[in-house]
Write a structure and sequence with these properties.
heterodimer, A: 186 residues, alpha/beta, Rossmann fold, seven-stranded parallel β-sheet, 45% helix, globular, B: 246 residues, ten-stranded mixed β-sheet, two-stranded antiparallel sheet, 9 helices, 35% helix, 29% strand
Chain lengths: 186, 246
């Protein structure tokens, strides 16, 4: 589907489910913008953004440029620490030491969900390919299976971003297994 | 059908689920692990949740002055210092030793009796329902023999259990230890063992928790990863990615 169709599709989601979104490098930021805009501004749903590709600070800066209020978004940043970037704790950002600490990613998401008592929240993983660089496929699929199951029990939406250029059969198999819907955006 | 014993909820939701509804009331549980694994934090949270329910707690500090401990204590969102002062009694064991004239390196059976009597007296006087001794290892050090350690723990557990108290005995382990306690006796006479550990996996150090034994309830024996947060201890199952408990 193209970007326009993707935006329309997002508007149809009214019940929590697990969606994988395949994006390309050229439309990566646009897709993130559409998702955050729809869930944060239109649906007024709190968002937990798990950043394993780009530090949360950089994503916040991009969102500011796009006019999306990043104050409505909580970040679980698992890349800044290993990049030796600034890891100043704020109310909205928690840091995980490394993208290999998959259990800690779940714990931090649970912490945010419990602390801020969120119902119908959205959890975004950006991206499965970045996590795949740091983890073997067996533990990654186990993580996503557990995480999806946990988020379903919390009635949360779950979006897993995957980069088309970096994908492979193993990643596709995992996404097929844990996703209710798979969207490919050209 | 399994007879269900009355439970003492730790207040740590995931741990209570692991234990199928909490610790059987009156159990004496060994909280064991090496340094930095979260034994004291878990024990304090157990007392904090009790205090919130109106159950008086007693924390007997053996290795660290309780004033210093309170200064370093994690600030829970759900708990205030006033509530600590109202709901938990903190006692430094050197004060008891001094009061009872037990300022010696090795305790006799008479000393053991005196110590137990004194703890029971405090528990009775203040209607305490949750007790933490942090750490039992330091007391055992002065008991010297396995017989005395066994006698001390058995008699203390029995007395506290009869008063409806659920007790945590904090046990210090060396990272290289094979069993669950320093002297090997503590684990045998306790009703339950909760093992806290550090798991090293590809350079990451994860805190872990496993309920090894708990009399009076069926429970999971899986390993969980633990996080200490301002909303309390959180647990998720350990992913089976290898690694070694240290």
């Amino acid at each position: 589907m193209n970007s326009e169709e993707f935006q329309k599709k997002l508007k149809t989601y009214q019940e929590p489910l697990s969606i994988s979104v395949s994006v390309s490098l050229s439309n990566y930021f646009d897709i993130i913008k559409y998702i955050l805009d729809d869930f944060s501004n239109n649906k007024n749903i709190p968002i937990i953004y798990i950043s394993a590709t780009i530090p949360s600070k950089s994503i916040s800066t991009v969102l500011d440029v796009y006019g999306i209020d990043s104050k409505k978004i909580f970040f679980v940043d698992c890349i800044s620490h290993i990049m030796m970037s600034s890891t100043a704790y704020t109310d909205r950002t928690v840091f995980v030491e490394s993208p290999t600490m998959l259990e800690t990613i779940m714990l931090k998401a649970e912490y945010i969900l419990n602390k801020y008592v969120m119902k119908n929240s959205l959890v975004i993983v950006d991206s499965i390919n970045s996590l795949a660089i740091h983890n073997d496929m067996k533990i990654l699929s186990e993580f996503l299976h557990l995480f999806v199951t946990y988020l379903r029990s919390r009635s949360a939406y779950f979006i897993i971003l995957s980069m088309k250029e970096q994908s492979n059969n193993e990643i596709s198999n995992i996404l097929n297994f844990v996703s209710d819907e798979i969207l490919e955006v050209e | 059908m399994e007879k269900v014993r009355e439970r003492c909820l730790t207040g740590i939701e995931a741990l209570d689920n692991i234990l199928n509804g909490g610790i059987p009331k009156g159990n004496t549980v060994l909280i064991t692990g090496s340094a930095g694994t979260g034994k004291t934090t878990l024990s304090i949270e157990f007392l904090v949740h009790g205090a919130m329910k109106g159950e008086k707690g007693l924390y007997i500090s053996v290795t660290e002055a309780s004033e210093k401990l309170l200064e370093n204590l994690i600030v829970y969102d759900f708990f205030s210092k006033e509530m600590i002062q109202k709901g938990i009694i903190f006692i430094d064991i050197p004060e008891i030793y001094e009061k009872l004239g037990m300022n010696k390196l090795q305790f006799s059976m008479e000393d053991i009796n005196l110590l137990i009597e004194n703890i029971v007296k405090i528990v009775t006087e203040f209607n305490v329902k949750r007790v933490v001794i942090d750490s039992i290892t330091s007391i055992c050090y002065r008991l010297q023999t396995e017989e005395k350690i066994m006698e001390f723990i058995l008699r203390l557990s029995k007395a506290l259990s009869e008063l409806g108290c659920t007790t945590f005995l904090v046990s210090e382990l060396l990272p290289s230890a094979k069993g669950y306690s320093q002297y090997g006796v503590e684990e045998a006479v306790s009703d339950g063992i909760i093992l806290l550990g550090n798991l090293e996996r590809r350079g990451d150090l994860l805190r872990t928790l496993r309920v090894v034994k708990m009399r009076g309830t069926s429970h999971s024996r899986a390993t969980y990863v633990l996080d200490i947060t301002s909303i309390g201890i959180l647990l998720v199952p350990l992913l089976k990615g290898g690694g070694e408990l240290i």
